[in-house]
Amino acid sequence: MQFNEHSDFQLLRNGIALKRGDSAVGDQALDFLDEWRKDDPTISLQTSGSTGVPKVVQVEKAVMWHSATATIAALGLAESIHALLALSPQYIAGKMMIVRALLGGWKLHVHDLSTAILDDLRSDFDFAALVPLQVKGRATQLNKIGTTILGGAPVDAGLLDEMNEVKTRVFETYGMTETVSHIALKELRPHTQDAFHAVPGVTFSVNADSELRIHAPQWNHTELQTTDVVSLLNENTFVWKGRSDFVINSGGVKIHPEKVEPILSKLVGKSVYVTSRQDDALGRRLVAIVEGEVPELSRELLQSSGLSVYETPKAWLSVSSFPMTESGKIVRHKL
Description:
Number of domains: 2
Number of strands: 20
Domain AMP-dependent synthetase/ligase: 35-190
CATH class of the largest domain: Alpha Beta
Family: Belongs to the ATP-dependent AMP-binding enzyme family.
Protein name: AMP-binding protein
GO molecular function: medium-chain fatty acid-CoA ligase activity
Shape: globular
InterPro entries: AMP-bd_C_sf, AMP-dep_synth/lig_dom, ANL_N_sf
């Protein structure tokens, strides 16, 4: 048995041992287990394509095992707990749930993929990994899960407000396929933190442009340079601001879409994303995009929201639907 796989590990569907043909997600999980148990030291991972063309990368199984160890330690997860597999085993988030279950000897319950999965739960669980899209409109259902981690897309202000009645533990994650899932956690409930905290074995620094560098030797990254702009509090803690490759330079002012979008979304009452268009005076002008009807917002309301004159949209556009990944993350190069 590779990597000291826990003998109590079980893969279940509707409370009984999973068999091939029970469900598409179950077959994907079994396919991953077959690949995991082969002698090949690496696993193929598919990126989401949110920032470019989806691609396949190779990672070492030993790194995935270490990542699982760090997550279990950071969250204090016990052995032989009941966990929920609610994400596709074709991507890193779903694969890592299986690896954590193998390490911890968990009973891993396979569920059909759905944005309404929280409505369908028939029992409580000790641990689950979800994407924000699965929680929006259903946040109080997180009380059925002892500890939940949310990843794949940022947690916006609206979803955070929804969690006011959540009494169980909820964390937002920071990571990428190259780091084999998350390498930092931010507590959202029962306490709300502004900063991400490194899991064991990871430290941070920044370059001259305040872009995050990840130092994670056991993940095979002595120095991984990202395009995430952060405020570094110490070598283990940072506040995330946005992506430098998404920055819009308007009139010489750098605008982070990730800062503007939550404010506009709260004003409008639905999701708003921003991009830019060529402008003779400003170089680039900010453009806001919504699904459906374009809202009418007064200048006074926009100014009172805390947005600067440069961060105020110069035009609004409507689309029938946003280009999104399966995890609910905007695909900006298509936007």
